[in-house]
Amino acid sequence: MTSAMASAPPQAGAEIFDRILAAPSGLVVLDSKDVHALIGQFRVLARHTGQAMYLWQPDTGLGSLRDAHARVPDCQRLGNALRYMQQSMHFGVYFLLGLELPLSAMDATLLRQLARAPKEHLRRVVLIDAPVALVEHLGELAVHLNSEDSQPRRLRLRDGRWLS
């Protein structure tokens, strides 16, 4: 466990995860100051809760956060991973990290379709630290969250009083 993860409150990942699930769109843009600590929190959460959580990165493709060695076959390329997400009938939260522009027209279309996914298929696609141009292109289709919003403030004791 890294020191960055050790210093982060363990419930922070769960709070962010709950906000992702509560989002009214199938597509969430998540900004984070410490992406690796955030992914670490989601990995711990996936292992403890058994939630279906996946991470896609350009160099590794799509893999399970619960089992670091479990890769989804034929999902190295972004387009294949997005099609997999769209066709899955199961609950899942898919984190995409390291997206690079330009996206193909097909990939952009798939993202828009995932944003409008039917409510009966609870699935969330989460773009972590997505390029600004992509966020602007998606506009209102995506819900914007910041991983720092839910972090509880550390209280300090000063002159016999707790301060935030």
Extract low-pLDDT stretches: 1-8, 150-155
The main pleated sheet reads as:
6 strands, mixed
CATH class: Alpha Beta
Q: If classified by CATH, what would the architecture be?
A: 3-Layer(aba) Sandwich
This entry's quaternary arrangement is single chain
Helix content: 25-40%
Q: Distance between the terminal alpha carbons, to the nearest Å?
A: 27 Å
Shape: globular
- Strand ordering within the main sheet: 3-2-4-5-1-6
Q: Provide a count of the helices.
A: 6
| DSSP summary, beta strand count | 8
| CATH-defined fold name | Rossmann fold
**Class from helix and strand fractions:** alpha/beta
**Count of domain modules:** 1
Q: What integer value in Å does the Rg equal? A: 17 Å
What does this structure look like?
The protein has helices spanning 3-7, 11-22, 35-49, 78-87, 105-115, 132-138, and strands at residues 27-31, 53-57, 61-64, 92-97, 123-128, 143-146, 156-158, 161-163. A hairpin with a 2-residue loop joins strand 7 and strand 8. Helices cover 37% and strands 22% of the residues. It is globular, with a radius of gyration of 17 Å. It has a single domain (20-148), classed as 3-Layer(aba) Sandwich (Rossmann fold). The protein has six helices and eight strands; from the N terminus they run H-H-E-H-E-E-H-E-H-E-H-E-E-E. The strands form two sheets. Strands 3-2-4-5-1-6 form a six-stranded mixed beta sheet, sandwiched between helices. A two-stranded antiparallel ribbon has the order 7-8. The longest helix has 15 residues, at 35-49.
